[in-house]
Amino acid sequence: MPAKIAIIYYTTYGHIRKLVDATAAGVKAAKGADGAPLNAEVTIYQFPEILSDEILAKQYAAPKDTSIPVIKATDLPQYDGFIFAFPTRYGRAVAQASAFFDSTGGLWASQALNGKMGSIVTSTATQHGGQETTVATTLPFFAHHGIIFVPIGYKSKLISTTDAVQGGSPWGATTVAGPDGSRQPSELELELAAYHGEHFASIVTKYVS
């Protein structure tokens, strides 16, 4: 059976959504060691919004994509792995993601997610704004549920590039949005996000099979 992967995201200005699309493409393109397609299934969800339309308007937030379903905690057990994608706030997960994590108490009590696999994609305003701490401070959620964290390591040479401002680390794919949000994900960052998806799909497929 092909691995079933959910990508669950929150985006304020659209940066994360661009990474998500590249990551999903990577999942779909993933191949095994023999070059055969893995045919991993990927479904994209949004985190529930907790802010009012008035506050979102004051933040100049991008409109929601109504074609993407909103995740419910009860949706999670049907998947073999999850890629959570969300911006950074003060070096940790954005409130919308944290609120959703808090809603999974029933799954924690039954350990319904124990043995599933998870990975994280994020963005920051600056290069030193918490790309790694955001992942690190999300790991307790993984640990309490028994979700196995899958980083991407240094296998991809894209992480070691120093020619320009860029996101991405062994913890996972990221982007740098700029203090005013004007910087968009670079081609290198999108390529790394695609690699993240491919790598995650290959690891989850090995585990499932």
TrEMBL record:
One of its GO terms (molecular function) is NAD(P)H dehydrogenase (quinone) activity. GO terms for cellular component: membrane. Residues 5-200 form the Flavodoxin-like domain. It comes from the Eukaryota. Belongs to the WrbA family. This is Benzoquinone reductase.
